[in-house]
Amino acid sequence: MDSIIGLIGGFGDVFTPTNLLYVLIGALIGTAVGVLPGLGSAMAVALLLPITFTLDPLAALVMFAGIYFGGLFGDAISGILMNTPGNSTAIAGSIEGHRMAKLGRAPQALATSAIGAFIGGMIATVLVVFFAPTLADLATKFGPGEYFALALFAFIATSVVVSDSVLKGMAALLIGLVLAMIGTDQVSGSQRFTFGNVALFDGVSIVVITVAMLAVGEVIYIASRIGRPDDRSLVPSKGRPFLTRAEFREALPAWLRGTAFGVPFGVIPAGGAEVPTFLSYGAEQRLDRRRKFPMFGKGAIRGVAGPEAAGNSTAGTAMGALLALGLPTSATAAMLLAAFQQYGM
Q1: Domains in the chain: how many in total?
Q2: Cα 81 to the chain's mean position, in Å?
Q3: Containing domain of residue 298, as a range?
């Protein structure tokens, strides 16, 4: 009962014209910054932090929430339209999303991403309101053994389900582990594989790897086609920017399954939504193989719906861990923690 009263009171404080305007402004600005490849939602919050210095605490916090979730949707926009995700959390949804865009179904892919973000974020937020103490207790029970088991499960599951070949997946996993080992060890403070280069002390950023793999290759290909007939002409969009009833019914189970993947990972102080998004993508891919007419590889709408819902539900429960424990489980949550401290919270 206390949770319901608090929830209603929170709605009463937020649902004012002024605060709703700040939410809208934050969502628009966050989307505009998040859509730029290499920046993402965390950078959007960091860049826009000074804007809120003159606002009252409630207006500033609701604006930050708009920036947070708007930045996540901006990450998906660049991934779907340009195959260059703004952040690593949007990689899984961009695989099928970009294929849909190349078939002229970009509006449907973006609509699927937006609705999935709303469903995943709302369900996670409601769960945080009613089960914040339980989620906090779950997070505090994670020790070294649980972290090791989670990391091992995430590595193997992601490398196997994303790639068509187990050997290719494991090879990609080993390459990723080698790149992750570069930099300063968080436990001992010693430098690993930096070769005395100060620029490598902070390691290799996932944004650098993402942009290098997806964006640079595209740029080099386009540059090599200068003066030649271009076989990559602009693909006109087909259909309307919303989903039909059939498309909605097809995407709904994936939205719910993706939310189920993302909710537990958001509260665990392990950081990031990459694991649940790829697990959701892998689950949808395996379910698609059982269908009479598999769609994965041809622009499957479920391949967009599941990862997008997983990423935003992880962000929703990450707010629960931040508010209940003061633990930022992602880079964006860490920026929000700095904003809370600015107002003495």
Answers
A1: 1
A2: 16
A3: 2-141+238-342
